């Protein structure tokens, strides 16, 4: 089986994939690294699986992943949360002599305190923390990169700062998915391996321009006593002001029947795009 993740080896996605595999019975897994989230998504076919970051404790949801999930025909089969911290490597004698900084786009929002100490610097955004490191290693004097803290021990740059995330307590949640579309009927028959589940989904009203639409959507879950852990609105991109809602429902095994009955009920009125139903 192939597991597609953001590469090269050493990204947090790679670490999350390895942590996930420790909890699973898969054998002979081949790691398949790609430089962007979109290429990771495109690479997952058949029975193979992929992993993408969904949410960071400091910087919130990963918009690129949500935008992709909104239109994706995938089944999420699980998730993995890992601690995240960063280090700074620089080819300079001090912070003030750094001219150019390589930083992954989601990492930037997690290292704001460090960045505020480097005014006037040229920031080059990358798609992966290990690409930031690669670019730094091939770079010139005055260059710096923010890289995973786990890579710091292997580096010997002239100037290095450890643990540069805005706070030490920081984590990112990743989702693991297959390429086949999540089907309500198939997933309703799934046997959970733990007592808890999560069900991520998008709900798209035919129009947002009506009083009480969100209230009505939330009412279905409230009436069924189903707990929502996420509610986000995302532009559908069809028209300015048209949004869909990304929702994560969590519950216990004894609520399996009620969640599927609720989703079927909602599907007669709204566009319900289920993304998965998995043990948590
Ligand atoms: O570049 C990496 O190391 C990644 O795995 C990506 C990613 C992300 O986009 O959220 C993962 C964890 C951190 O939040 C920062 C970057």
Descriptive report:
Strands 1, 2, 3, 4, 5 and 11 form a 6-stranded mixed β-sheet that branches. The chain has 280 residues and is α+β, with helices and mostly antiparallel strands. Helices cover 26% and strands 34% of the residues. Strand 13 and strand 14 form a beta hairpin. It folds into 3 domains: 95 residues, 3-Layer(aba) Sandwich (D-Maltodextrin-Binding Protein, domain 2), CATH 3.40.190.10; 79 residues, D-Maltodextrin-Binding Protein, domain 2 (3-Layer(aba) Sandwich), CATH 3.40.190.10; 99 residues, Alpha-Beta Plaits, CATH 3.30.70. The structure holds prephenic acid (PRE).
List the helices and strands and how they pair.
Blueprint: E1 2-6, H1 12-22, E2 30-34, H2 37-43, E3 49-56, E4 60-61, H3 63-71, E5 75-83, E6 86-90, E7 100-104, H4 105-108, H5 112-116, E8 122-126, H6 129-137, E9 143-148, E10 159-161, E11 171-178, H7 184-188, E12 196-204, H8 213-223, E13 227-235, E14 243-252, H9 256-267, E15 271-274, E16 278-279
Parallel strand pairs: 1-2, 1-3, 7-8, 7-9
Antiparallel strand pairs: 3-4, 3-11, 5-11, 6-9, 6-10, 12-14, 12-15, 12-16, 13-14
Bound molecules: prephenic acid.
Prephenic acid is lined by residues 6, 11-13, 53, 56, 62, 84, 104, 106-107, 128-129, 148, 172.
């Amino acid at each position: 089986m192939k597991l597609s993740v953001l590469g090269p080896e050493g990204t947090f996605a790679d670490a999350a994939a390895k942590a996930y595999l420790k909890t699973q019975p898969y054998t002979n897994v081949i790691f398949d690294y790609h430089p962007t989230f979109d290429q990771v998504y495109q690479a997952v076919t058949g029975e193979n699986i992929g992993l993408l970051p969904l949410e960071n404790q400091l910087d919130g949801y990963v918009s690129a992943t949500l935008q992709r999930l909104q239109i994706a025909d995938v089944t999420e089969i699980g998730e993995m949360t890992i601690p995240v911290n960063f280090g700074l490597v620089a080819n300079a004698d001090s912070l003030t002599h750094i001219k150019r900084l390589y930083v992954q786009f989601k990492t930037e929002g997690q290292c704001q305190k460090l960045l505020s100490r480097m005014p006037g610097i040229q920031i080059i955004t990358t798609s992966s923390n290990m690409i930031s490191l690669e670019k730094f290693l091939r770079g010139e004097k005055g260059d710096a990169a923010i890289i995973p803290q786990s890579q710091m021990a292997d580096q010997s740059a002239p100037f290095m700062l450890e643990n540069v995330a805005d706070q030490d307590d920081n984590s990112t949640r990743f989702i693991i998915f297959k390429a086949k579309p999540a089907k309500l009927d198939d997933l309703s028959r799934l046997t959970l391996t733990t007592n808890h589940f999560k069900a991520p989904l998008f709900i798209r009203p035919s129009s947002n321009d009506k009083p009480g639409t969100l209230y009505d959507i939330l009412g279905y879950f409230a009436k069924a006593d189903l707990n929502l852990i996420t509610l986000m609105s995302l532009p559908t991109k069809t028209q300015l002001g048209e949004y869909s809602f990304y929702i994560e429902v969590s519950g216990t095994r004894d609520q399996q029947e009620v969640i599927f009955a609720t989703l079927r009920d909602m599907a007669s009125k709204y566009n319900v795009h289920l993304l998965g139903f998995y043990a948590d």
